[in-house]
Amino acid sequence: MTGAALVAVTVSSADLTMIAVIVVLLVALTFLALAETGITRMSRARARGLEAGGRARAARLVRLVSHPEEFINPLLLVVLVLQSVQTALTTLVTERLFGTAGLVVGLVVNIVLVFVFTEAIPKTWAVQHTEQAALATAGPVHALTHFWPLRIVSQGLIGLTNVILPGKGLKQGPFVSEAELLAYADEAAEGEAIEPEERALIQQIIEFGDTIVREVMVPRTDMVTVSGDFRVADVMEVVLLNGYSRVPVCGEGIDDVVGVIYAKDLMRAERDGHEDAEVRSLMRTARFVPETKKVTELLREMQAEQFHMAIVIDEYGGTAGLATLEDLIEELVGEIVDEFDVEDPRIEPIAGGDVRVNGRLAVDEANEVLDGNLPEGEWDTIGGLLFSKLGKVPLEGDSVEVNGFRLWADKVQGRRISRVRISRLVARPSPPGQAEPEPIDASGGGDHR
After folding, report:
1. Buried/exposed 6-29: b ≥16 CB within 10 Å, e otherwise
2. DSSP secondary structure letters along 208-269
3. If you compute the radius of gyration of the chain from its CA atoms, what whole number of angstroms results?
4. Partners of 412 in beta bridges
5. Could you say which DSSP state residue 294 is in?
6. Most Cβ neighbours (<10 Å): which of 61, 91, 107, 373?
């Protein structure tokens, strides 16, 4: 009786106190798991939408998701400390109560109890009710992670990590690749959170940052230019015939662009009776950019300096083409065609499953349409790919096989491929014992040498 009484006194005085502390720690860990999942799954745009809707504590939530690196590390540090203390106390209590077997009991309690009640249940609920979880925990988490001693300790540990693992380190916060962003957009489109057109626009915006001017410019072979000694009346006819508002002015040739003439300046000169004046006297300064310039940089320059056309220069100083503000915008939103534009369709399905495309169609666009893997290299367009694989000046009807497709020179103007027909090749297995068929001649017809 005396021994049983002593055990009862021991449990009620020390062990029960530690059990109460363990329960409090489990409740705190449950709350932090709820907060971690709810806040990290909340996007900045979604949080700002809640703030605009007048939801309580949404302002603090916006501050947290806008700077996730400021709360994630302190929060994870607190979770680690609480889990360590809870594990130590649980092991100590079970060992005191059950002796050596208490170690096994403590291990089972930590695995089952902690996983179910402080991990699985709160995080599952937070995934299903992200807004409620994030709003409910935003205030306490904001106060906790802005507690200055905790922030100092957390920053010190992160600094130690950056010393051990030099480079970007953890101080700059999480990093997201373009592929991950596109995966998020795909997931949102599948869940009907955004429209397919919005997903396509997101992809175009991401790709826009990697695009260079050479990929969007009008090549020199398609440029419409006028000589500086042309009369105003003659240049006005060129402008009206082509429907352009700006035309480059050349000196001794297309590689000697000396300025740009505006249609409104021509109309003003004609109205004032100067139709016989040389256009050189009315031209404005031309802007020149290298063909390797990023289109994002050129777009910012056009906005800041208020110009709509730039002459593109190659590495040898010659004219490679021209880029307009419309060309840059079309790279984002697709082709812009008004009622006066007369152009061949960029992509035209034809009988038999083939596709006829403009020779200037980008290879990556063709791959999206064909669901293929046509190679990219020194060329940017389908015409350039065909020209490179042929290895000679093409004639209409020439063709070449590339990665499961046959590309035909459907229309050739001079030395330029302006239209390409693409056929998908269907592999035909050879009968048993028969040799593989010889590959088709890349010339696609007779000998054109």
Report:
1. eeeeeeeeebeeeeeebeebbeeb
2. HTT-BHHHHSEEGGG---EETTSBHHHHHHHHHHHT-SEEEEESSSTT-EEEEEEHHHHHHH
3. 35
4. 417
5. B
6. 61
How would you classify residue 74: left for phi > 0, otherwise alpha for psi between -120 and 50, otherwise beta?
A: alpha
Instruction: Encode pLDDT of 262-287 as tens digits.
Output: 999 999 998 888 888 888 889 999 99
Which residue ranges make up each domain of the chain? Answer: 2-164, 179-208, 213-333, 347-424
- Calculate the CA 281 to chain-centre distance: 46
CATH architecture of the domain 213-333 equals: Roll (3.10)
Percent of the chain with pLDDT over 70: 84
- pLDDT tens by residue, 176-197: 566 667 777 777 777 777 777 7
Quote the pLDDT of residue 16: 81
Rounded to whole angstroms, the Cα distance separating 186 from 192 reads 10
CA–CA separation, 449 and 162 (whole Å): 64
Q: Any idea which architecture 347-424 has in CATH?
A: 2-Layer Sandwich (3.30)
* CA separation for the pair 277, 27 (Å, rounded): 87
Pair of tokens at residue 177: 């690749």
